[in-house]
């Protein structure tokens, strides 16, 4: 990390301490990452950023705000109105029914936006740049249900290089859950003291709170907690 | 380009013909690129995309629409409301005066958004993806006044790789003006039959039409036309 000192100069010493920005969706994974960042960088050096991009369940943004407040880190939410226009007719023309499930990656609904994670991280890097936050933390994983190519390690590695070139920065993208299973993510959350915060997170595809327990997201979450032998405070 | 054929199958033959999407700002450079794309890919294979991102001069979007209509290519405009929020206080808090000049790259105003071109091209790639437009065309140049690191060839090369990985595509980014001077760009425009279209473009930093002729953008444009020995239809 860039720490410059000038002992024999009148120029004030500039210290770019290691600071991190966590992309916080309000879900289980990004919440775990927030606590990972707090351990790695210290709570005073961590902030969180969410995106209001017209997600189906607004409760996700409420969850993100609650998680950030619980963790005592600053939190901002930026709007992105482009996805709705990009997603095309199904999202912008009320006469067309949305096909598929926005949150179900096994199918590509007619609102699917390729490269959405690239956009999130590029906007996060743009937010981080003037604030000298040299570390971006994202909860994406290529292990579990997230088959999106923009969540893979190779893509993030390439994106990091693109951001460094395009912003003349030394930004680093961290994806601590990249190669973990859901069980391992829950175990990591316990190790980080993040289990209590899970009470504020949102996972349910159906947008229900308490969660429906029946949708694929609820079942995947339940399976991870069960395999880790840990009670999920959201449902207990 | 991917052209697949299956001679002994019931599956219909799929031909992904070479199609191009031009990021059209309404300025001189992207207009030249539009005509370059028409020459390279054929007018029926070219479409144009603009972004309404809160640019200072709305006349740019009018120019883009007029240029596209003149060139007889389809044209869409997508909103991006994030830059205003990213640009931070100066753009979102009316109590703070905008410092510097948004269009003057020699200084970084407090509304400067790093990586803006990365966002434009990533959204363009996301728009192109379901439409099987495998070629993105951008008018950026690292020769002239555009000192932005996200306009350099090395950055675009890295971004192309990131987009290919992140969208599992074979997308190609073309920047035909990358290494041209303004004079050379004007000469290319003449070669492409694009001079007449320049009457619809917008360049003036002050948002004036007819252009003020005094701002740095107007002077740079005039210098290019003068050195090429060609009359600019916008001012003649």
Write structural notes for this entry:
- With 236 residues, the first copy, chain A, is α/β, with parallel strands linked by helices.
- Chain A has one domain (20-228): HUPs (Rossmann fold, 3-Layer(aba) Sandwich).
- Chain A has helices at 28-41, 59-71, 82-87, 89-92, 116-128, 153-167, 182-191, 216-228, and strands at residues 20-23, 46-52, 74-79, 135-137, 172-174.
- In chain A, strands 3-2-1-4-5 form a 5-stranded parallel beta sheet, sandwiched between helices.
- The longest helix of chain A is centred in the C-terminal third of the chain and has 15 residues, at 153-167.
- The radius of gyration of chain A is 19 Å and the shape is globular.
- The termini of chain A are far apart.
- Residues 1-15 and 89-107 of chain A have low confidence and may be disordered.
- Chains A and B meet through helix 3, helix 5 and helix 6 of A and helix 3, helix 5 and helix 6 of B.
């Amino acid at each position: 990390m860039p720490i410059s000192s000038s002992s024999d100069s009148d120029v004030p010493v500039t210290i770019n301490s290691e600071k991190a920005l966590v992309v916080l969706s309000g879900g289980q994974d990004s919440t775990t990452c927030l606590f990972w960042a707090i351990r790695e960088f210290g709570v005073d050096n961590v902030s969180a950023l969410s995106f209001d991009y017209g997600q189906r369940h607004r409760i996700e943004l409420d969850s993100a705000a609650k998680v950030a407040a619980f963790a005592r880190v600053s939190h901002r939410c930026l709007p992105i109105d482009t996805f709705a226009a990009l997603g095309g007719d199904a999202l912008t023309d009320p006469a067309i029914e949305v096909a598929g499930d926005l949150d179900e990656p096994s199918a590509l609904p007619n609102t699917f936006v390729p490269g959405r994670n690239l956009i999130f991280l590029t906007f996060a890097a743009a937010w981080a740049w003037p604030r000298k936050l040299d570390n971006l933390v994202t909860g994406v994983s290529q292990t579990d249900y997230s088959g999106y190519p923009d969540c893979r390690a190779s893509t993030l590695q390439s994106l990091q290089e693109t951001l460094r070139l395009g912003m003349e920065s030394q930004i680093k993208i961290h994806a601590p859950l990249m190669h973990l299973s859901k069980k391992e993510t829950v175990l990591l959350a316990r190790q980080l003291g993040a289990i209590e915060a899970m009470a504020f997170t949102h996972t349910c595809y159906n947008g229900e709170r308490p969660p429906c327990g029946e949708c694929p997201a609820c079942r995947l979450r339940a399976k991870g907690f069960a395999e880790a032998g840990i009670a999920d405070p959201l449902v207990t």
